[in-house]
């Protein structure tokens, strides 16, 4: 079988030398490999060429970029998680497993459908894999020091500590929003429509989330829940999958009246630094349930 391998040599502990090792690993199982580095031009074009399987070796950023481009293609995707947080791979049950075992499992895999949402606003439309939100996460992304997490020796722990400090001082944001036609407006420290069980630095915010369930979980944190959020961020090591930690509503169609506050769609921030006035405010809609990509996972 012909496979297209998209590899991020800068993810986690990966390096340029790992490219040869990955190609050799796939070749040993009989796959004909078309290799492209996600750091070089041409990887997007490679996805348009014929292949029976697309393999992504990288972290959430690389997996999400490939996933968004595989919508409607009918070609399954397999992940060799090599990033720091690996939220997508963790949601699919792929972490803490040797690459050799994952590659062997593709011969008789479990096929998992992962929903891909669409966020539409004054800037246009964009697919999202992880989520859409305003408040705490978006404000951190807008902070120029956001790269600290990537550069830290312990990026997940560092990211959670930054979240904890930000949660101590962040101000509630007045949001007007509707979920499946119901008014959920309020003053929120955090509003996140999450598509994965894990987001950010491995935060487990959506306990009931299942891949392919055609719903996202809208996490709503008011001033009244600030202490609950802080408690979780301070004690995440004790039980990352702590149940019912924050109020959550499930739905398929979220509408937000956007007035130009920081808003993120996956790892992209709106408004852009040089956005035109007409791209800075308006109605933002996030929908899920109409698009998906199939992933391979161990049976």
Tags for this model:
9 helices, alpha+beta, 6-stranded antiparallel β-sheet, globular, 22 strands
How many H/I helices?
9
Strand percentage, roughly? 25-35%
Low-confidence stretches are none
Derived structural class: alpha+beta
Oligomer: single chain
Structure summary:
This protein has 299 residues and is of the alpha+beta class. The chain is built from 9 helices and 22 strands.
SSE map:
Elements: E1 2-7, H1 18-28, E2 32-37, H2 43-47, E3 53-58, H3 60-69, E4 77-81, H4 87-91, H5 99-105, E5 110-115, E6 117-121, E7 124-128, E8 131-135, H6 136-142, H7 148-151, H8 155-169, E9 173-175, E10 177-179, E11 182-183, E12 186-188, E13 190-194, E14 198-199, E15 203-204, E16 216-221, H9 226-234, E17 248-251, E18 253-258, E19 263-265, E20 268-270, E21 282-287, E22 292-297
Helix pairs in contact: 8-9
Explain how this protein is built.
There is one protein chain. By secondary structure, this protein is α+β, with helices and mostly antiparallel strands. Helices cover 24% and strands 33% of the residues. The protein is built from nine helices and 22 strands. The strands form six sheets. A six-stranded antiparallel sheet has the order 7-6-21-18-10-11, with no helix packed on it. Helix 8 (155-169) packs antiparallel against helix 9 (226-234). The longest helix is centred in the middle third of the chain and has 15 residues, at 155-169. The chain is globular. The protein starts with a strand and ends with a strand.
């Amino acid at each position: 079988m012909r496979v297209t391998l998209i590899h991020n040599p800068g993810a986690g502990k990966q390096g340029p030398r790992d490219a040869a090792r990955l190609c050799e690993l796939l070749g040993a199982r009989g796959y004909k490999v078309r290799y492209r580095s996600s750091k070089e031009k041409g990887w997007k074009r490679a996805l348009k060429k014929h292949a029976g399987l697309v393999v992504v070796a990288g972290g959430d950023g690389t997996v999400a970029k490939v996933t968004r481009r595989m919508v409607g293609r009918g070609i399954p995707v397999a992940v060799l998680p090599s990033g720091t947080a690996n939220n997508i791979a963790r949601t699919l049950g792929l972490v803490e497993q040797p690459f050799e075992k994952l590659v062997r499992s593709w011969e008789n895999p479990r096929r998992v459908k992962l929903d891909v949402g669409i966020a539409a606003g004054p800037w246009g439309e964009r697919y999202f894999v992880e989520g859409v939100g305003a408040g705490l996460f978006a404000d951190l992304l807008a902070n120029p020091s956001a790269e600290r997490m990537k550069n830290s020796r312990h990026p997940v722990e560092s990211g959670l500590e930054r979240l904890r400090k930000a949660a101590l001082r962040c101000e509630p944001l007045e949001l007007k929003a509707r979920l499946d036609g119901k008014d959920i407006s309020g003053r929120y420290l955090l509003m996140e429509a999450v598509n994965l069980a894990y987001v950010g630095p491995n935060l487990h915010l959506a306990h009931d989330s299942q891949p392919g369930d055609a719903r996202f979980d809208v996490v709503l944190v008011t001033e009244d829940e600030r202490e609950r959020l802080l408690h979780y961020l301070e004690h995440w090591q004790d039980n990352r999958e702590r149940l019912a930690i924050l109020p959550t509503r499930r739905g398929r169609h979220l509408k937000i009246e956007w007035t130009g506050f920081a808003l993120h769609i996956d790892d992209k921030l709106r408004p852009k630094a040089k956005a035109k006035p007409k791209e800075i405010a308006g109605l933002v809609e996030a929908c899920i349930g109409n698009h998906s990509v199939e992933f391979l996972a161990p049976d």
